[in-house]
Amino acid sequence: MSFWTQNSLEPKRAFRFRVKSSGTIGLGTDGLGYWWNANKIDKPSFIVNSNKYRLINHEINVPGIISWSPITAELADVGRTVDALMQQLGEIGYKPDNLTIDGGIGKGEGNGEGALFDLHIQQVNGNGEVIEDWTLQGAFISEMKLSTLDYGSDDIVSITLTITYDYALLN
Fold this sequence. Notes:
Layout lengths: L16 E5 L16 E4 L3 E11 L2 E12 L1 E6 L4 H11 L25 E8 L5 E17 L11 E7 L2 E4 L1
Antiparallel strand pairs: 1-6, 2-5, 3-4, 5-8, 6-7, 7-8, 7-9
């Protein structure tokens, strides 16, 4: 039976979402970690690699390792967003003014330990209640692209982030 014939079901809407981070990312403008300037964000996705095994005259596919794909988020450039992102780059260990042999970009134990954060991507219904909550564990920003400046456009300046993470949980 199709959900169109059941008036008690409501399809999820792409524009009803919010993004929240923990840790030191500092992009939330309300002090609670919400990214109110997020225009778009991907939901987590994964690929399960398969391994082929031969059994006499048959080939069998067996699931292998799961790989979580990076997500992309688009933010409106408001306030000091770029400053917060550059501070995040410093927290993963990039310090061009203090180059040492033992320094550098890293994920833990002295190299960027404060850079990791949990990212929550929440879908809400028409009443604002959370109906789907993804938590991206061990997330960090792996790419930042600023939009092009153009005298012929009155668009809002945007920032596109690629966020890499260890795994995602559906709460």
